[in-house]
Amino acid sequence: MNPNNKRKLDIIVVGTGLGGASAAASLGELGYNVKVFCISDSPRRAHSIAAQGGINAAKNYQNDNDSVYRLFYDTIKGGDYRAREANVYRLAEVSSAIIDQCVAQGIPFAREYGGYLANRSFGGVQVSRTFYARGQTGQQLLLGAYAALNRQIAAGTVKSYPRHEMLDLVVVNGEAKGIIARNLVTSQLERFSAHAVIIATGGYGNTYFLSTNAMNSNGSAAWQCYKKGAYFANPCFAQIHPTCIPVHGDQQCKLTLMSESLRNDGRIWVPKKLEDVEKLRKHEIKASQIPEEDRDYYLERRYPAFGNLVPRDVASRAAKERCDAGFGVNETGKAVFLDFREAIERLGHQKVAERYGNLFDMYEKITASSPWEEPMMIYPAIHYTMGGIWVDYDLQTTIPGLYAIGEANFSDHGGNRLGASALMQGLADGYFIVPITIGDYLSKKFAEPRTDTSIKEFTVAEKAVQARIDRLFAINGTKTVDSIHKELGHIMWEYVGMARDAEGLKTAIKLIKELKEDFYKNVKVSGNQFEFNQELEKALRLEDFFEIGELMARDALNRNESCGGHFRTESQTEEGEAKRDDANFMYVAAWEYKGEDQEPELHKEPLKYEFIEVKTRNYKD
Ligand SMILES: Cc1cc2nc3c(=O)[nH]c(=O)nc-3n(C[C@H](O)[C@H](O)[C@H](O)COP(=O)(O)OP(=O)(O)OC[C@H]3O[C@@H](n4cnc5c(N)ncnc54)[C@H](O)[C@@H]3O)c2cc1C
Q: Quick one: pLDDT at residue 190?
């Protein structure tokens, strides 16, 4: 498009994580007028800042025979053949350019002695292609994207709206034309119009209440788009990360991830003998006192080829299997060891500290136990959602003019995301893909005048948001929002968690509906609308989490096969591995909203693999 015409076009970007910040900066640089929104007080406080371990790219710096094809292959296989081939291939192609861009921005990636960028390995692959900045990769990458964004803000191409929460999408004549946002400081509802809207609001893992996600992470913007006509794809594909600090009480509202990078050198085990488990639980012995021959390094035993570096879904299920068999090493029986003793002996204290020092410090601060002396205790926890808004190859949703990027879309990870691939996807979408693909849609729009926000569609959308807020304050019950959200989390973890079956999923749908009714009778949203009110923010998000949770259960019930992180107990091999059903389920499940209390309609996008042979995943030999 003629650069002069880009100046006539407005784009709304919702979200300033790696996806949104990089998209807004790139679109500004291209000459569009961008309005960028986020919940936090500064764009740089997005959840992406929490990412620890690294970002993948097929640079082959280690000369270990990496290639674009191999990254593509690993990602499709890691996702258990449930991702769209073309999108994943493009992701692998773009990966190299991301690293170049970030290095040019000055991201302090770890380097080898000679100055080359260093790499480490992540689960599900046999090459080293993960670039990292100690255990703070997300933070450093976000600082780079934020700097690029600020450059555009200073240049006047981007206007930033921090502390603004999108509460509805405005659709005019079937096309996305704007949003209704609540100014979280003044509490006013505000209207914003544009020629196109990009959703970059992250994942919906907090449906489970306890997760490794930031407290502000939510699924609401994506959900409002769904209710306005955007299909929602593969909602049941939620990732459970094997290495998180175990739950340690009823009052907890957040779980902490211990980066997957630790599995490069840490070895996972439980005792072989139940007597040792008992003694550990009673604090009569320490892990370090259990001799080598009495330790069961169960991942190395079951998956010799990949060992501790099997993908997350496989490692999580294996931990659950050992704990369910009674070998969990803490009081609750829900923990396994991640041990660095051998690595410290082999590499020395300094090398291990260089690689993982800040993660060790973090672990010690939270648990008061030093990983230098005793192994870490870890257990699987909800971490990431592969499902999300359905998008085509251009990352456009089923609503023309509405795009979805980063964790908010469903596109690249199938049934299981490989470690260090979310940052790659967010930055690929934001820096390189959507800034170009959106031009195809906008090239037909530059002669269109800006949409006037006083038209009926904006008024109706704003009134609907106001009605939701009024309804919440009118309930005036006795239960806090968090206490009900916690109940939802229990239902989700119990029935839509690591192992799912038809009966449990039907129970989940019933219980979620009942809990939702309870919420509308008994919740107390304290304060009022006309102040900075985080209870109101949480209540609005919880309304959507009920519906997201229900659709997750419905999707899981429909998908009567096991694949990736979605494990249906009815569909497993004799060895307890996930058993896919390619004949019946090799499709993307895209759900269409049909109205309040109506059954959503399922659309199936068949998956065709032309450049990769579809096989049963094997990490054993
Ligand atoms: C602890 C942890 C460690 C991780 N480590 C890694 C790693 O090492 N490598 C890797 O590849 N991946 C990692 N991940 C995953 C990765 O960090 C995320 O998938 C990714 O950062 C998501 O980026 P995003 O831009 O899509 O969304 P986010 O970073 O979640 O940003 C969402 C943005 O949307 C805004 N927002 C949300 N809702 C609204 C609304 N309604 N209105 C306005 N704004 C809104 C938020 O304010 C925020 O700015 C990790 C995840 C966690 C939880």
A: 98
